[in-house]
Amino acid sequence: MSKSSRRIAPLLVVGIVSSCFRPAPPLEEGDERDSGLTTETSTESGSTTQGHPLLKKRQAQKNAATPSSTTTSATSTLPSGTSQGGTLVVQATPAVAISSVSSSTTPTPVPTQATASVWEQEAYIKAANGKSYRNFGKVISLNADTLVVGSRYDASSVRTITNGSGASSDESALESGAAFVYRRVGSNWSQEAYIKAANGDANDSFGNAVSISGDTIAIGAMHESSAESVITNGSSASSSNGASDSGAVYVYRRSGSNWSQEAFIKPSNSDADDWFGQSVALSGETLVVGSPSEDSSQNNVSNGQPASTNNSSTNSGAAYVFRRNGSKWTEEAYLKATNAAANDEFGRSVSISGETIVVGTPVRAGTGAAYIFGRSGNSWSQEAYVTAVNANNGDAFANALAVSGDTLVVGAYLEDAAQNTITNGTTASNNNTYYDSGAAYVYRRSGNAWTQEAYIKAVNPDWYDSFGFSVAISGNALAVGAPYEESSLNHR
Prior knowledge:
Blueprint: E1 16-21, E2 36-43, E3 46-53, H1 59-62, E4 82-90, E5 95-102, E6 107-115, E7 118-121, E8 139-143, E9 146-151, E10 161-163, E11 178-185, E12 188-195, E13 206-213, E14 216-221, E15 232-233, E16 248-255, E17 258-265, E18 279-283, E19 286-291, E20 302-303, E21 318-325, E22 328-335, E23 349-353, E24 356-361, E25 369-376, E26 379-386, E27 397-404, E28 407-412, E29 422-424, E30 439-446, E31 449-456, E32 470-474, E33 477-482
């Protein structure tokens, strides 16, 4: 990824949430700006944002004739002209929110309610100030009865939180970004807040990543440009634009039905073009933030110490762990891969569940990898390094991550196998004839050892479906998104 490259037009993600999976019970007992999209998934124990690099396609493959598929797949019913795709959220409660992209280019989250094995659409949500190309719904996060939706290209110059309904229609700060909060009472959803950054500027992309846990929301703005390298606890944020695209994360907390800013977070080694906040994941009092364009050559974890300021490994990437005590946030750890290398973009995706953090680098060694870290007390250490058993160049393994307890699901949306079944166990297909059909991998931890439990393919795989573009897990339920799947059904 070139740090000097600039924004391209928003990429439309059109497709469906392809599949939900539940394991069989035991026998005995129960940029786009330049390089990528982000999608948000949420579990009962935390949430995660995934970065999706638009990897250079294999031209020889793309020039081949594309086979067709007659197998159908399902979505929930949407208004005419709307297709499902892009983002999904799964909760421990029987609800799922699915982001779609309509023909008007305005994404829309669609909360869906499950009763037993039957899923029904519950709501169709549009931004109060909806306009084309605002990326409303490109990232979402759900916790119980609260949904947060990112709109990274919102153009309002407002720098305040609007608690209640409504949103500014001002268009004087293009791509400054915003986030919308919705709350459910019974089966009715309504807007609770419209959130803008306290220091919002044009092109900040506030809302490119969102995560909610309880009454706390974290929002990324990976193109925020202040030169600060400290955490500001409270309601203010620096307006010094001396470090272009350094990035920032904003933390908000709810009291009753009112939201207010709790902290403005910058890393201790903040630098221009680091894209801090490209991915965020929040669980309880712990926040993890990805910074895929961070440049240090460090190859270990720093606990309780300032992050490295050497810039000798371009775009190697980093992740940062922050912890709250009362209402005060501090930097707890600086995570680097043990085999860190230039252009790995470590931190493209992150996920957290309790004392476990997973960080993805979908371009590592050309195939992708996931790194698992565990916490003991206040100290983090790398626990495992995970790659696909059938890894191939360009698969984008770990473009999407979701961890819950001892289970991890990893997306590889450019994986190429033609298989149309689930393989339970440690193997995976090497039949690479359905280019970019995509796959998901499930891993299970026993003690400190992680092993592959399943290799998942869509029942109707086809070229370029991108199955695995987004993933979510809650308990024994797993959902996998395939934004470029092309069946014509518009129901479950």
